[in-house]
Amino acid sequence: MPAAAVDDPAHAEIAIVSAMPLELGAFLKRCERVRQYSGHDFVFRGGVYDGIRVVVVESGAGRKRAARAAHAVLDAHSPKWILSCGFTGGLQPAVKVGQIVVADAVLGPEGERLVLQTNMKSDPARGLHVGPLFTGDHIVRTVAEKKQLADATGAIAVDMESLAVAQVCRERQVPCLVVRAVTDDCTTDLPAEAMTLFGETGTVRMGAVVGALWRRPGSLSDLWKLREQAAKAAESLASFLDGVLIQLHKATNAETGTLPS
Q: Under the phi-then-psi rule, with left for phi > 0, alpha for psi from -120 to 50, and beta for the rest, what region is 51?
C-alpha cells in the first residue's frame, strides 16, 4: 500500500463495525498506532495493521445503532470495505464455541434475505463455517429458542447487527463481509443475566452485574464461564482477521473485485 495512504489518518481502507469493545479488543492489540476518538455518538478506534489502515466503530447492540454506526464510519473514512464483526450464537450442532462463522447471506425477522459474496468454503476441521446468519431483535438465550430459530430459518448462527450493516453497505454500494466468532452453542442456555448485562452502547452495566450477583449468587460461575468463552471467541476472531484483512487489501489493490478464498 502506498505510504501516503497509510499515513492519512482521515481515511481507513477497511472499517469494522462491532457492538462491544470486547469483541475487537484482541484484534486491536495486534494493530499499531491505535488511537481512540468519539463522533456521532460512537467510539472509534483507528490503527494500522500490517500497513493497512483500519478503523473499528463500536455501535452498541441492535440493528438501529449498527446502521447508524455503518453510515457514520462511511461518512468519516470512506473505506473500501466494511466488515461486521463480533460475537455470535451457534444454531447448528457443528458450530462450536470459539469457532468462526462467515455469512454468505444475512436473514431478518421480517423475511429479509441479503446474499453476500464470499469465496470462502466451510472447513469444520479448522473451525470455519460458511452459511446464512440470522439477525434478530433480542439475545437468543435458550436451547429451545435456538433450535426453533434454526429449524425455521436454516441459519447456522445468530446476532443482532449484521443485517443492518449489510443493508447500509448495499445502499451505499460498498462491499461487505460478515465475520463472527461463536460465544455460545446450541447445546447450552445462556445465563438469564446475559439479557441485562450490556447497555445500549455495548458497555457493561455494572449495576446489572451487582444486581445479578445479589439475586443469584450462583450466577457468578455462569457469568465467569461466559466471560471466558467471550475471550476465547475474541482471540479466534483476531487470528482469523489476520489473514482476511491482508487478502482484502491485496484484492482491492489488484482491483479484482474478488473476495479472499
A: left
Show the cell assigned to 3: 505510504
Residue 166, domain member (yes or no): yes
CATH number of the domain bearing residue 231 = 3.40.50.1580
| pLDDT tens for each residue of 20-57 | 888 999 999 999 999 999 888 899 999 999 999 999 99
Residues 6+ apart with CB under 8 A from 248: 14, 81, 177, 259, 260
Q: What residues make up the domain containing 82?
A: 3-254
Per the domain annotation, does 259 fall within a domain? no
Question: What is the spatial distance between Cα 259 and Cα 244, in angstroms, rounded to a whole number?
Answer: 9
Contact 160, 61 (CB under 8 A): yes
Q: How many domains does the chain have?
A: 1
- Kindly tell me the burial class for residue 13, based on how many C-beta atoms sit within 10 Å of its own C-beta (0-12, 13-18, 19 or more): buried
Residue 21, in any domain of the structure: yes
On whether the CB atoms of residues 99 and 181 are closer than 8 A, the answer is yes
DSSP 158: E
pLDDT tens digit sequence for 132-158: 999 999 889 899 999 999 999 999 999
Q: At residue 169, does pLDDT exceed 50?
A: yes
Eight-state DSSP code of residue 93: T
Over range 197-219, report the average pLDDT: 46
Flag whether 158 is in a domain.
yes
The per-residue pLDDT for 196 is 53
Q: 63-77 and 162-172 helices cross at what angle (nearest 10)?
A: 40
19 Cβ contact list (under 8 Å, min separation 6): 58, 59, 60, 61, 65, 66, 86, 87, 160, 161, 202
In this prediction, residue 217 carries a pLDDT of 47
